[in-house]
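User: We ran a pulldown and think these components assemble together. Before we commit to crystallization trials, I'd like a predicted model of the whole complex to look at. Sequences follow.
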Amino acid sequence: MNNNLIQATNLTKVYNKGGEGGGEVYGVRDVSLEIRKGDYVAIMGASGSGKSTLMNILGCLDKPTSGSLKLDGVQVSTLTDEELARVRNRKIGFVFQSFNLLARTNALENVELPLIYSDRTDITRLAREALASVGLSDRVHHTPGELSGGQQQRVAIARALVTDPEIIFADEPTGNLDSRSSLEIMSLLQQLNEKGRTIVLVTHEPDISEHARRIIRIADGRIISDEVNPEPRVAEQEMNALVSKEVSNENK
Amino acid sequence: MAFKGLGRNKLRTFLMMIGIVIGITALTLIVSAGLGAQDRIMERVKKFGLESMMVFAGAGREMGQPTSGQPTTSLKLEDAVAMKQEIKAIADVAPFNQKRQAEVKFQDKSTATTVIGVTPSWAPVWDWDAAEGDFITDEDIASLARVCVIGPTVQKELFGTADPIGEQLRIGNVQFEIKGIMQTKGTSPAGGDMDDRIYIPLSTLMRRVANVDYISAIKIRLTTAKDMEKTAADIKALLRERHKLAAETPDDFTITTPTEVTKMAEKVAGTFNIFLALVAAISLIAGGVVVANIMLISVNERRKEIGLRKALGAQRKDIMLQFLYEATAVTLTGGVIGIVLGAIGAKILEGITQMPTSISWVSVALGVVFSSLVGILAGLQPAKRAAALQPIEALRA
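Assistant: Here's a predicted model for the assembly, 649 residues in total across the polymer chains.
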């Protein structure tokens, strides 16, 4: 056995264009890659490059048109919808650009959501712990409308963590956030990775991707480069720098 | 969980519920009014008595219908006496004859009313006695007494609020002394005023007023409501024998049992009920369509939520169950609210129209189940479609 959490071979996703003689559009073309346990991978690319499509396939949110995908040693391509739902529930956590929290539902209930679909019974305790781990113990009963963007994304991360998944997929997690909240989120993801959690980050911002230890660049549905990032940015340092700059600005 | 979800989107929940509420309220109200009317008719049938039968002179008579043409003269007082003696199931008989549209005068006031010649058994057989004064007695019969007992309607018309007992009134050319006032009975199954009557001794009517030797009908009280058909057959055989009817000659009398009275009442109620059922069905369908629409819109709106739940590990059955619970909770709650509003509305209607109302829980429950089913089916179909999508397709919606 190898240490690969994800082993993708020749993944291809084709969309049928609607309308007369629409033809086909490739989302992902013939992509093969491996992701080891404990890695922190950024998938970088311009909008429309196929990076989100790739992430959706790797995260079992979408099915490839062809190719094979092994997740934690399990051949995912042959699973039924029910088995896939179980994989998503137990092995994968998602963080979305638009947070995707249930409106008018408090933070605790939002974090409990994946546990409702598991066989766990101590869901409130687990949800509270997850919220504490993202520093939101004091916002448990706030609804998304009562939270800032950064706080909402932290609730979403708590929701992704609460099932203790092998891997977390984050699709443009900072896309809707200001720079300070973005660094908070990036710092949180980095902490999670340091504790051994595998993270796949999708972004179009080079600055954000540089927090990862490995950067895969995508264009036109193909991998154009796959490199180790020798010196990942450390979000916590950047945040401290930002704070001291703000403080010195105020003191001027 | 379902209730929490519903509480979060109050407008949508309210809209879904309102369709059911309107449908069920209308149904409850309409059914209550309809059943109330039917109850009232059955109450009238009970006035006739469930352990009673009627024998009319003449073939093919129906209750409450005036005789057309020549009166049948073959039914005699002796027939009534013989029935009571020979048929065990008969507890008592009340033979009577009547003169319709008889002119009645008191001083300068006059009215046209039905004069009925009765025996004392009228009171126990009809369960209907004098409220004030006395009813006709055996002595009155024996002496062809010129006494009468008047119905409350006659009392009101001729005397107003004055006490009529002891007064003299004229029926045709004969003077009668008023000895009593009857209990109020109200409307007959056929709709006539049973209080617009004057009772006199049967013998007096036959000899002094109408000058006939026959009676028009016999009301019979049975010892039990059972074996009604057999007793009717016995009466028929006895009368045919007494009237010396040949085998091929049709009956010269008509026997009416409560079953037939009920049938007649149902005939009247039937038309009314078809109309009510139609209105109730329309309101239910309208309610169902509203719920179906809102459910359809709501599920399409909620594709994103379905996508998210699937991304977090919800299986298809989890999604279906959620929508099932929600639709059931909404429609049942709406149904209960509708029943309560309908019942309140029925009481208000009762107060305004003086029409009695009566709630049929079976039909109301059927209504709730029906509209719930419509709502649930309407909600489940699109939910099923959304749940079958890949999570990302639903999320993108």
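The first helix of chain B runs from residue 2 to 8. That may be worth checking against your pulldown data before setting up trials.

User: Thanks, that helps.
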